[in-house]
Amino acid sequence: MVKITFPDGSIREYESGVTGLDIAKSISHKLAKEVLAVSVNGETWDLTRGIATDATVKLYTWDDEEGKHAFWHSSAHLMAEALQELYPGTKFGIGPAIESGFYYDIEPGNDIVLTDKDLEAVEKKMVELSGSRQEYQRVDVSKKEALDYFSKRNETYKVELINDLEDGKITYYQQGTFTDLCRGPHLPDTSYIKAIKLTSLAGAYWRGNEKNKMLTRIYGIAFPKQKMLEEWLVLMEEARQRDHRKVGKEMELFMFSQAVGQGLPMWLPKGTMLRDRLESFLRKLQKKHDYQQVITPHITNVNLYKTSGHFQKYGKDSFQVITTPQEGEEFMLKPMNCPHHCEMYKFKPRSYKELPIRFAEFGTVYRYEQSGELHGLTRVRGFTQDDAHLFCMPDQIKDEFKKVIDIIFIIFKALDFNDFTAQVSLRDPNNKEKYIGSDENWEKAERAIIEAAEEKGLKTNVVLGEAAFYGPKLDFMVKDAIGRKWQLGTIQVDYNLPERFELEYTGADNQKHRPVMIHRAPFGSMERFVAVLIEHTGGKFPLWLTPEQVVVLPISEKFNDYAQNVLNLLNNSDIRTVLDDRNEKIGRKIRDNELKKIPFMLVVGENEASQQQVSVRRQGRGDAGSMSIDEFIKLVNKEVDGQLEAIYNY
RNA sequence: GCUGUUGUAGCUCAGGGGUAGAGCACUUCCUUGGUAAGGAAGAGGUCUCGGGUUCAAAUCCCGAUAACAGCUCCA
Question: Nucleotides on strand B with an atom closer than 7 A to protein CB?
Answer without folding.
Answer: 1-5, 11-12, 25-27, 32-37, 65-75
